[in-house]
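## Example pair
The file below holds two records. Each record gives the amino-acid sequence first, followed by its C-alpha cell line.
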Amino acid sequence: MKYVSLMRDELKKKILNFLYEDELFNPFLIHFIENQPENIGELYITESDGCVENILHMKFDGNSYFTNFYPKNEKGYRAIAEQLQLLNYNRVLLSGKRKDVSKILSYFTKDLKSAPDIYYKFDVNQYFKQTTYPDITFRVATCCQSDMNKISEFMIGFFKPTSEKGIADLTDKNKLLEDLKVGIYFIEYKGQPIGMARYSGKTKNFIDITTVYIDPDYRGKGFGKKLMAYMVDDILSVNKIPVTQTSSSNPIAKKTYESLGFIKQDDYSFEFIS
C-alpha cells in the first residue's frame, strides 16, 4: 500500500468517492479528510486503473492506534493486513464491521475475543423533541483550563488507562484540542459538569456520537439518556442523522439507545491486534 503524504485535490476526491460508497460506516475518516486533514494521522491506499481500491487509516488517539480500513474486495483484506504487519505498531485497535475485522484478524492467526458491538443509526421517524429538566443544562465544552481539566477527568474515567504514560497520552493538550474541533458536550447538574459525550466524525449525512460518559456518582438516574437525547437533538438540528455504537454486552446502553429511536445496522467490533 502507498502512504499518502500529500493529498492533492484530485486524490482527495477519489478517496472520498470511494469512502462515500459506504458513508454510514466511514464517518471518522471522511470527517478528517473533509474537515481536519492536518490532523488525519496516517493514511495508506492502493489504486488500480486510476481508482482507489483499499484504504487503511491509523490515528493515535491517546489510548491506541485507532485503525479504520475499507477494502474493495477480498484481495484488499490481504493488502491491509500485510501493511499492518509491516508497520508492526503496538496497541493497534481495529474498528469496523465485525465480519471485516474477523477477516483481518485471520491474517494474524487471531480470533475475535470481545463481544460484538452494535452499530446504530437513528430512525428519524421515531424522533420527538426532548423535554427540558430543572437543574439540568447542556453546553459545548471549550478550551478554557477548567473545561480541559474536566474533559481529562472524564476521558480517564471512560478509557481507564493503567499507566502514567497512558494518562499523559490520553490527556495530551493537542489531542484534546483536536477533539474540541469536532465537538465535545457537557451535561451539567446544578451548574456542574457530571458527564460528557463527543462527536468523532461528521459527513454529509451522518454524525457519529462517542465517549458517552457519566460520573459514577450520578449513574442510574437517567442522566446518560438525557445526554444522548440532547446529542440527537443537536445533530438533527443541522439536518444530519446520528450514528453510534455500544457493546452487545451492555444491556443498559442498548435499552437506552433503542428507546430513543436507534436501530441496529450491523454487528461491529473494536479489537486489538497488538
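Second record, same layout:
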Amino acid sequence: MHFYFIIFSTIFALLISYLRYKYQYWELLGVPQLKMNYFLGNLFRIKTIHKTELLHEVYKEFRGKAKLVGTYVFTKPIAVALDLDLVKSILIKDFNKFTDRFEQRNSSESIINHHLFRLDGERWRPLRAKLTPTFTSAKMKYMFPTLLTVAQQLEEAFSKQLTKTSNGDVELHDLMGR
C-alpha cells in the first residue's frame, strides 16, 4: 500500500514540476505573461471561452505596457504581438521566420486549407514566392480599376438577386458561381 502511495506521489510531483516548467516558458525569456495556475494552466478558461477571447483578454491587460506578451493554450506557448510596428515587422520583413500557424488541420480536409493564409511551413514558402511578385505596389495600382469594376458588377448582381426574393435571402453559391 505504501509502495503505491510513493509511486503515485512521485508521478504527481513529476507532473507538477513538468507543468511548472512548461508554464514558465515566457517568464524565463523575460516576456510578460498572464498569471497561470501551475497545475491546470488556463485549461478551464479554454474550456469556457474561445481562443480569440483569451487573446483579447491578453490584449486588454497588456495594451500599452508591452510590445510582446506570452500566454498558453493548454501547455503550448503562444506569442501575442501588441505593438503595430512589431506586427508590421513580423508580417513584412520577418515573414520567413513566422511560417507556421497555430491550428493543425488535415490537408485533404477542405479546399480552404490550401489558401495562402492557412498553409504551414514548407507548403507556404513556394506559394508565397510565386505570389509575391504579383502584389507589388505598381501592379496593385494597375489592377485597382479592374477590381473596382468587378466590385460594382457584383453589387449590381447582388441588388438584382435581392429584389427577386421576398424574404431577403440570397443564395451566394449561385451568385458567386457566375
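Notes on the second record: The beta strands are 68-73, 76-81. The first strand starts at residue 68 and ends at 73.
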